[in-house]
Amino acid sequence: MAINEWKIWQRLGFKSPPKQSKIDVNKDIDAVLDSLNDVKPVISSLIKDINKFKALKKQEKSRKNISDNELKKMTEEKVKVFDRILNQYEYYELDVDVNGERIKNISSVLGKKAKDFGISKKWLNKIKNSERWTFDW
Fold first, then answer.
1. Which residues in the chain show pLDDT less than 50?
2. Residues 87-123: tens digit of each pLDDT
3. Cα separation of 126 and 119, whole Å?
4. So what's the pLDDT on residue 16?
5. Which pLDDT does position 135 carry in this prediction?
């Protein structure tokens, strides 16, 4: 029995780590697909805001004699636009990270099944050594 399985740890108040729930490939694939469908409007809005930010930067550079009041308003507008960019990008990045974990889980389940069923060595080697399958990118 390994040291982390001793019951004395439970008596001392240490809990064993929660067991990982079983991976449901169908649910994960559906969640990834839903997320990809939801990303389209977020990306188009993000692109629109980034273009607006670029236009404000260009407008600021093109004006040579800008009053302090105008410069203050333009800076405030850039901050508002960039805040929206950060907010949208935060959600986008979070979705991508979560879906990346789902894809990794699916990859591990599929790799184990492939090994158990003894598919061709070409594919087993690819699953074992490919940077895509091992997520070494």
1. none
2. 999 988 988 999 999 999 898 899 888 888 888 889 9
3. 11
4. 64
5. 82
Structural domain contains residue 13? no
Residue 76: closest CA among 58, 62, 56? 56
Domain membership flag for residue 72: yes
CA-based nearest residue to 111, from 134, 88, 137, 79: 134
- CA 121, 99, 19, 16 torsion-angle sign: positive
Structure tokens at 105: 């889980």
- The DSSP call for residue 65 is S
Residues of the domain holding 94? 24-114
* Residue type at position 32: V
Distance (Å, rounded) from C-alpha 98 to C-alpha 126? 25
The continuous run of DSSP H or E covering 46 comes out as: helix 25-62
Which uninterrupted H or E stretch holds 88?
A: helix 68-117
Into how many domains does the chain fold? Answer: 1
Q: 132 near 106, Cβ under 8 Å?
A: no
Q: Which two tokens stand for residue 92?
A: 């986008």
